[in-house]
Specification:
Layout lengths: L2 E10 L3 E2 L2 E2 L4 E4 L2 E3 L3 E5 L6 H8 L7 E6 L7 H4 L2 E4 L11 H11 L4 H14 L15 H13 L5 E5 L7 H16 L3 E5 L3 H7 L2 E6 L2 E7 H4 L2 E8 L4 H7 L5 E4 L5 E5 L5 H10 L4 E7 L2 H10 L5
Parallel strand pairs: 6-10, 6-11, 8-9, 9-10
Antiparallel strand pairs: 1-4, 1-5, 1-7, 2-3, 11-12, 13-15, 13-16, 14-15
Helix pairs in contact: 3-4, 4-5
Bound molecules: adenosine-5'-triphosphate (ATP) and magnesium ion.
Magnesium ion binds next to helix 1.
């Protein structure tokens, strides 16, 4: 499998605070982010997400360990043009207009002058800021600035987008639009790695996640694999009361549906072999679906069970 980001024992100590050596902000991080994924990077405040992102962007150097981004070390100049980046606290020159700012970014990215105007108009349209192209950044709200930050990150049609809390400051429309932008980026072949505290949004759009706590990785992998089944839902079509009744003792919940069918829920995973058997013998009338743990419950469970908390 190809990976867009890989880290091996990546560790960062920022140094000393007065006389006391600081705890590592990141310790022995090992993650592999497969090509083609939308990767959600999660963790409470101070977990080490921004530190990791800064290391991947070569804004700070690791104390030990290594990282590769698009197959190269983070200090490789060539890869900079293939990455789109939104920092956690972007600094904007307040006297520039949105267009002038993006034009400067486009020049730095060496986008040819013949393509610059079109490309800037395209990204302004994508982040729904076309009508503010001439507005000065100093007069923009936090959410508007975040949109401009996202516009500059996608300006060079990057292969990899690294976004530090892109949903911060966006209203519900902005969040929905950003989720659509991220999904579209993925459809166009861009890999996306972003940190966020908004677990419901992460659950909706990410296929892979990692959770950090106090500089340590608690888990990482495919969302579907991590959010294991916490139970099963059996839908029985109308006209099968006998079958429904035979399963009721074992079910943790039963519900008669308005159409006369039944929905039974089973919270014990031991019921699975029996339910699979029922389904295979009644394919036309019975549907079995796993009930997943939601990401929020999973996140809290992982953090609560971490000895370092
Ligand atoms: N420049 C710095 N100098 C010293 N310590 C730092 C520095 N930057 C971060 N830290 C420390 O490193 C730890 C991890 O911080 P980091 O910013 O990576 O967390 P985060 O997961 O991004 O948190 P948040 O969700 O609040 O953005 C924290 O304990 C923080 O105090
Ligand atoms: Mg951060």
């Amino acid at each position: 499998m190809e990976y867009v980001i890989q880290t091996e024992n990546l560790t960062k100590y920022y140094g000393w605070l007065f006389w006391k050596k600081q705890e590592p902000s990141l310790e022995n991080l090992n993650i592999s982010i497969p090509k083609g994924s939308i990767f959600g990077f999660l963790g409470p405040n101070g977990a080490g997400k921004t530190t990791t992102i800064r290391l991947l962007m070569d804004l700070i150097k690791p104390s030990s360990g290594t990282a590769t981004v698009l197959g190269c070390p983070p200090d490789n100049i060539e890869i900079k043009q293939r990455i789109g980046f939104l920092p956690d606290t972007p600094a904007f020159s307040s006297y520039l207009s949105a267009y002038e700012f993006l034009d400067t970014c486009a020049k730095l990215l060496r986008i040819p002058s013949s393509e610059r105007r079109n490309r800037i108009e395209e990204v302004l349209e994508t982040v729904k800021m076309s009508k503010h192209a001439k507005g000065k950044l100093g007069t923009f709200s936090r959410g508007m600035l975040q949109r401009i930050g996202i516009a500059q990150a996608i300006l060079n049609k990057p292969e990899l987008l690294i976004l530090d809390e892109p949903l911060l400051g966006l209203d519900p429309y902005g969040r929905q639009e950003l989720k659509d932008i991220i999904l579209n980026q993925k459809r166009n072949g861009t890999n996306v790695f972003f940190s966020s505290h908004i677990l419901s949004d992460v659950e909706r759009i990410c296929d892979h996640i990692a959770i950090l706590n106090k500089g340590h990785l608690l888990c990482s992998g495919k969302l579907d694999d991590l959010l294991s089944a916490v139970g099963y839902r059996l839908h029985i079509k109308t006209g099968n009361d006998e079958l429904a009744k035979s399963l009721m003792d074992e079910a943790s919940g039963t519900m008669r549906l308005p159409d006369g069918g039944w929905e039974l829920t089973f919270s014990k995973t031991e019921s699975l072999p029996r339910l699979n058997d029922v389904q295979s013998k009644n394919r036309e009338t019975v549907t079995l679906t796993p009930m997943r743990e939601n990401l929020e419950d999973f996140f809290f469970r992982k953090i609560e069970n971490d000895d370092r908390k």
